[in-house]
Design a protein that fits this description.
The complex is a heterodimer of chains A (277) and B (293). Chain A has 16 helices and no strands. Chain A is extended. By secondary structure, chain A is mainly alpha-helical. Chain B is an all-alpha fold. Chain B has one domain (12-153, 169-290). Classes of the chains: A mainly alpha (277), B mainly alpha (293).
């Protein structure tokens, strides 16, 4: 046994060496998980949560920000702190936290758009729509090709639709379409022009402007024949059938898919719908 | 209505007395199981380090390819850990467990005869039949893996097909009660079916197919005794099964690292206790029935 002791020691050392060290990212993810668990207590019962529970969660996130400054974990932690104050109804404190996310935008890039959106959302939840709208328009202006800015026109349309504000809805739709058309003219927008055209269509669909939606879809089919135009034709058929009650036109669109795109995934569906109409 | 007295096969309780007697006389019988358990613990430990350097160089690409990048991150990695360990156990069981089981069987036979138990000699003796043992163990694992999945898959298919009830009972009964009970019984029967095969290989020197057939014939001759002897230690594994079935909930309530702890408990109870007791007890039955002693 004594002779084998060096062998067992070597084996144990080899196993330990093979395990290496836990990566920094993994440690950070563990800390985030623990902080999220603490935050869950607040989310489950925001009004009934005592202040010390909230503070515990906030402190856990602040420790992550301190330990991993400038990292994605720090950004997530800032957002989480803001969300905690938001659910507790402390909108001013939430905004103070979100403002930290809107500094150094040249380094953070589109993350700043997310930070501004969170500020806008806090105004919206507080019932201050006008201020929220100003922030949303700022995002659309300053971060034109970010994921947030591309979604915001539709977001604003949905807001007016939920409020049943017809005038606001029409105005938002027109502004959204103008915004996407403006992006299309830019060099960067030309690469994703088909996506912008789809977004224009969605503006019309979300605001109930069916004829304009049909025109936009037809334009997509005409201008982007390599970008699955059969999907646009299918949507046209559904619009004719369900919104405009024009079964004849719906049939024509479905027959167009079956005839011009027989191998597409939508062809069998189109045939089924033709049978039903 | 009076309950019928449960009939226990003759000699079943006596077997456990023999098990205690043999193992207390020669504790070296447990060493092969200690070895395989230690190996499983080391493998579990190494698997837990898969997301970290340097092991992530080897484990990272297959995990990302098969299950996705997310499983290299906390806490999702711990959702994958039981599955990784399951596959590792199959590998260890086939290539190492077959040898340690064979060694334990030989050790029991020698202890029963009152002869000295020299594990080095036993190891060499078992190694001569390594290929046969690997094939037999592979068949057992494949049979268990495939057959035990069928009832639950059939039931899920049935209920997903839109049926609300089966035999007037809803899916909750079938999934939470019937399937676990059926899995337990299937495990007992499948283990019993193959349990005498390895003794025929290492003690009687039989080749692969004769050992398989003779082992199954012996099981069919001793069904009640074998089932009882296999089932009783497996009852000890039920709490581990219940822990494993609720592993997600436990991990969420405490921490994801609890998954590793539950798997470790499974090794202690499954390998060190359940497997050891089943192997020793069935070997003693084999010796008694085939007049090996």
């Amino acid at each position: 046994m004594k002779r084998r002791a060096p062998f067992y020691l070597l084996l144990a050392c080899s196993v330990l060496l093979a395990t290496g060290c836990e990566s920094r990212a993994f440690k950070a993810e563990r800390r985030m998980w623990k902080a999220h668990k603490l935050a869950q207590a607040v989310y489950k019962n925001p009004k009934g949560t005592p202040p010390f529970v909230l503070q515990k969660a906030v402190d856990a996130y602040r420790e992550i920000i301190k330990a991993y400054p400038g990292s994605l974990f720090a950004v997530q932690a800032e957002f989480s702190i803001g969300h905690l104050y938001l659910v507790k109804g402390d909108f001013d404190k939430a905004r103070d936290v979100y403002k930290n996310l809107t500094t150094d935008c040249d380094k953070k890039g589109n993350l700043c758009a997310e930070g501004y959106f969170a500020i806008g959302k806090s105004y919206e939840l507080q019932g201050r729509w006008a201020e929220a709208l100003l922030i949303y328009k700022k995002i659309m202006q300053e971060y034109p090709f970010s994921a947030k800015s591309l979604d915001l026109p539709l977001y604003i349309i949905r807001h007016y639709r939920a409020e049943k504000n017809e005038m606001g809805l029409k105005s938002a739709a027109d502004q959204g379409v103008a915004y996407y058309l403006g992006l299309k003219t830019q060099e960067r927008g030309q690469k994703g022009a088909h996506i912008l055209q789809s977004l224009i269509t969605r503006c019309y669909l979300e605001s109930g402007m069916w004829q304009d939606a049909l025109d936009s879809l037809e334009r997509y089919v005409r201008d982007y024949p390599d970008r699955d135009p059969q999907e646009a034709i299918f949507v046209k058929a559904l619009l004719y059938a369900r919104k405009l009650n024009d079964k004849q036109k719906a049939k024509e669109e479905l027959e167009r898919i079956v005839k011009d795109y027989p191998d597409s995934k939508l062809a069998p569906q189109a045939k089924t719908l033709l049978g039903r109409l | 209505m009076a309950l019928r007295k449960l009939k226990i096969a003759p000699g079943t309780l006596a077997i456990w007395k023999s098990v205690i007697s043999v193992t207390t006389r020669k504790p070296a019988i447990f060493l092969p199981f200690c070895f395989i358990a230690a190996l499983e613990v080391v493998v579990l430990f190494l698997l837990c380090q898969s997301p970290h350097a340097p092991l992530n160089i080897i484990m990272g690409p297959p995990i990302r390819r098969i299950w996705g990048q997310v499983y290299m991150h906390y806490p999702f990695f711990y959702e994958l850990l039981p599955r990784l360990f399951y596959y590792a156990k199959i590998f260890l069981g086939i290539f190492f467990g077959s040898v340690t089981t064979g060694m334990a069987i030989c050790a029991v036979s020698l202890a029963r005869k009152g002869e000295p138990v020299d594990l080095k000699d036993i190891f060499r003796q078992v190694l001569r039949r390594y290929l046969t043992l690997i094939v037999l163990t592979s068949i057992l694992y494949v049979a268990v893996h495939i057959l035990m999945k069928q009832p639950s898959q059939l039931l899920f298919k049935y209920f997903r097909g839109g049926h609300a009830k089966l035999l007037f009972l809803g899916p909750k009964f079938w999934v939470t009660f019937f399937i676990p009970v059926l899995n337990f019984l299937l495990a007992v029967v499948l283990q019993g079916l193959f349990v005498y095969t390895i003794p025929y290989v290492v003690l009687k020197g039989k080749k692969f197919i004769p050992a398989l057939l003779l082992g199954m014939r012996l099981f069919l001759k001793l069904i009640p005794k074998t089932v009882f002897v296999v089932a009783i230690p497996m009852i000890l594994y039920i709490p581990v099964t219940m822990l494993r079935n609720n592993i997600g909930l436990l991990a969420d309530k405490s921490s994801p690292e609890t998954v590793g702890l539950i798997l470790f408990i499974g090794i202690l109870i499954g390998t060190l206790i359940v497997d050891a007791l089943i192997t020793v007890a069935t070997t003693l039955i084999f010796i008694e029935e085939t007049h090996e002693a």
